[in-house]
UniProtKB/TrEMBL annotation:
A GO BP annotation: protein transport
Source organism (scientific name): Polynucleobacter campilacus
Coiled-coil intervals, chain numbering: 268-295
Main subcellular localisation: membrane
InterPro entries: AAA+_ATPase, FlhF, FlhF__GTPase_dom, P-loop_NTPase, SRP54_GTPase_dom
Family the UniProt entry places it in: Belongs to the GTP-binding SRP family.
AAA+ ATPase domain location: 208-356
Location within or outside the cell: Cell membrane
Keywords: Bacterial flagellum biogenesis, Bacterial flagellum protein export, Cell membrane, Cell projection, Cilium, Coiled coil, Flagellum, GTP-binding, Membrane, Nucleotide-binding, Protein transport, Transport
Function: Necessary for flagellar biosynthesis. May be involved in translocation of the flagellum.
Protein's name according to its UniProt entry: Flagellar biosynthesis protein FlhF
UniProt key word Translocase: no
Sequence ranges assigned to domain SRP54-type proteins GTP-binding in this UniProt record: 209-401
One Gene Ontology term, aspect cellular component: plasma membrane
Amino acid sequence: MTMKKFLAKTTRQALMQVKEELGEDATIISNRSINGWTEILARSESITLPGSKLLDSVSSAKEKAEKALQAKKVQETVDLLNGRSSSKVTSTPVELTPSHVEVMAPKEQPVEIINHPQIQGMLKEMREMRNQFQAQLETLSNSTLEFSPNKRDLMSQFLSAGFNLDLAKRVISKLPSDFSAKEAKPWAMNLLAKNMQVLENEAEIMNQHGIYALLGPTGVGKTTTIAKIASRFVLKHGNQDIALVSTDTYRIGGHEQLRIYGKILGVEVFAAKDAQELQQTLEKLQDKKLVLIDMAGLSQKDKMVSSQLDMLCEASRDIKKIICLNASGTLDTLNNVSKAFAGRGLDGCIITKADEAIGLGSVINVILQNKLKVLYLTNGQRVPEDIALVDKIALIEEAFKQEDSSDHLSIVRPEDLPAFFSKSSVMPSGQAQYA
């Protein structure tokens, strides 16, 4: 810092002297008049000395070089965190004169330190932690945060009733934002009912000529269901225009139960062990108005399922394939059964053993997902009492009522939703789309 006094006739002349010697950045300390002269005391923070410009330029170049090296280290660390090689990193060029090259000489020892195995291990752990945090944040942002309290409550009811997460999200995503909690649930149930196909009039089966084959795993209730349908037909039209056919030759006495039902009803019962016998039997029954075929019970994983379907498809007459779905089955099992027996197409389904099911959400979910038309629902062993056409509104209401039952163990609360959203599955294309 330099301080100096300047004396001149006028203030202007004194200021010019200050500017010439100390520069435009000089600071005026005092200004007073002495015997008609003007005295100014001024100071300057720095003074230019010979060779100072060269020192300033070298200092500036050194600072730039240090900043460039620090920037390179930071960039290499960031690139390592992002999984990129440090060899591809290039720092921002710094324009220097040849005389400043020596300032850039420091060795790049920090790069060797970063490449040390322990440092690499730490960086790998940091990347994994970052990915986990990002996944959790994405889960929260895409699930709970986007749902209003009404939607979260409705979502918990869907999941508790046994519906699939994907179906629940599809339905709830269309819920109007201004709906109250009382309006949300009836709206959702109405939307499900709108997408469910059911047999509206039993005359479609009873009053028209048709052949129906009941498919499904062992124990799902095919034989008992056939007896119930046959009983309803006999009560309306007598026993002359109906016949029963059994293809269950795999079990010892597999068709005996159907023969007992036929004897009670006074209905003829036939057995067919292969496609040829089935074809011959159907030719004999051309004058019958209703033919019910009791197919052998097969696991959905059995290779014989395809042979069973081939036998039905090779017949000269049109045979409607009806899958029996056990209402007490799990969603994944029911869906797997439907896909296995739908290899040649399905014409509908019958919900069986509804009286044994804790919840009906799973079977309803599979019906909607696979676009199956529901012909009947059975809810007991009595013949013919425990069978009825499906009231889809009542069925869906019952599914949500069972969610509140004390027997239901899978209650999902709104605060549990993030765990479910993180496991969301995408429904394959070509399946049910909800209006």
